[in-house]
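Team,

Forwarding the record for the chain on the shared tracking sheet. I've put the sequence and predicted structure together so nobody has to dig through attachments.
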Amino acid sequence: MAERASVVASQFGKSARVVRVANLTHVILQDADDACPAQIFQTFLNNPAGLAHQNTSCAGRVAPIHAVGGYPLRLAQARPAHPTAGNQAGRPALQAASTALAMVGDEISRFPLIEGFGDLGLRGGKVGFSGGNVVKIKLTGARWVAGATINGSASWNQASGFVTAALTVTLDSGQPVKVNANWRVHGGPKQLAVISGSQGGKRLAAVSPAP
């Protein structure tokens, strides 16, 4: 793609300039991570003659896409959240927390692409959307993996990218896991979601890569 862009630019001659925007697909103006390319585009429209000297330094600082590392079939195969100070919950609860966040993250990525205000969970259940600039996401019996059912809600501020979630993960075996978490969509490459909650009176405290 980069080579083709250079070829096209050469056909326009000295009036053309190639700006490579990091960590975005070939469509760079379609989601909450488009502030930099939008700024470059607007500045060019306002002053086409200044293209050669236009400041495009933000193009190299666009946050990377948070891709899903894998789709485990069962809860026992899921990568657990990383316990932090004060955590008392065991591995299944930490796995429940990470899968709950993955479920919400997946729906946020799907929201601009689906028709209407409803979706189906990856392995079952329903997801509903409402709101405008702040999107409310409701999970009803949603399953990211076999062995755990997720209910609850999340709020996604499209302007700031900030997400908060309050979820209950019901395990096929074991006590339900209460999960509260927050993170920011399109955050930095090492951004972590902060997780709190409980399982059967045991405190859950952890972090996980932001979905």
